[in-house]
User: Fold this.
Amino acid sequence: MKEQQITQAFEYAKARYAELGVDVEQAIEKLEKLSISLHCWQADDVAGCEAPDGALTGGIQTTGNYPGKARTIAEIRADIDKAMSLIPGEHRVNIHAFYADFSETGVVDRDQLEPKHFQSWIDWAKEKGYKLDFNATCFSHEKSADGFTLSHRDPAIRQFWVDHVNACRRISEEMGRQLNSACIHNIWIPDGSKDVTVDRALYRKNLKESLDKIFEMKTNDNYMRDCIESKLFGIGSESYVVGSHEFYMGYGVANNKMITLDSGHFHPTEVISDKISSLLLFAPEIMLHVSRGVRWDSDHVVLLTDELQALAHEIVRANAFDRVHVGLDYFDASINRIGAYVVGTRATQKAFTQALLEPIAKLREYEAKGQNFERMALLEEAKSLPWAAVYNYFCMKKGVIAGEAYIADIQQYEADVTSKR
Ligand code: RNT
Ligand code: ZN
Assistant:
């Protein structure tokens, strides 16, 4: 796409949207502020850096063995840098605790982790202008081998994971302090069982107590925020998951905690877009793990689907940019992994571009007057308004390749770098 083409299309789009009362420049300003949190674990198929050949456990799974996955911290960072260079705007990186850098310090177990084990991540982020988010890693570890962590029957195991989570909360605080942006710390645990469980209440009571203990340690809101993530089922926890949606929604509402909604963690026909306007009335903030479940929580690369569009629209309509944090969570090992980052993140931005350009004033007016045909017709027309011209212009403005030309760029990186691994 030539610069002149992009500009011409943009000028046309601006005029067309103006006819519908939409200010394109204002939409672009908002799009600029949308920082998406890129999950570091797409780069290496959720292997982590403790034992790169260790098994991924916890009921999550990657499928595929496309060549060129990142094998070291340096490769993960290089691949994320490459992906970031093809995504317009300023974004965040979401790190898991098992990506600790022990090269300068010697190895420690997860309950002993300290900020120093992540200093090289912080330095990298500072240098590149990224902000960081963080996650406790309560899977792929011998103390989670029987499928239980914070809800375990054995108090010593529970304590180990309480200590791990709090170590992670301290690390998050330090990341936020050094990078000058609150680091969002997510708690997701795999706890559950494959088959019928009779003592469901016991594990949930244990989990509640563990969380209470964790949150007794106060942290600074300006530097870190806690969020808690539910799930419906996992591989090997098909019959029972301790941290269900009702559990965490109850916990979050009762304790004023941010709730994480992962788009793959609900019944196959249940969507998270419709949860935004309810949850925001009762929980302080929402963290999103945008994913694309296909038949199960399969963590496929995010695409511009109806649900992604609905999600972006709901956030924009609720004017909730400040209270909803957008992160990605998928892991596709069957295709070029940098491509997976770029396609998923750009799809998310496109969904928000559409949403920010919606002729909302007119639509609200129709709805208020009960003009439902008119509302339907305008919503339908809005789908094919020239929003893509605005996104391409946004890419150009940010110095990033517009349109499909990024395919060749990723192919070049594959030829030069990832294929040689
Ligand atoms: C698992 C959760 C969780 C993980 C990451 C790796 O079902 O979605 O968020 O994907 O923490
Ligand atoms: Zn998730």
User: Anything to note?
Assistant: Residues 1-22+359-421 form one domain. The longest helix spans residues 155-179.
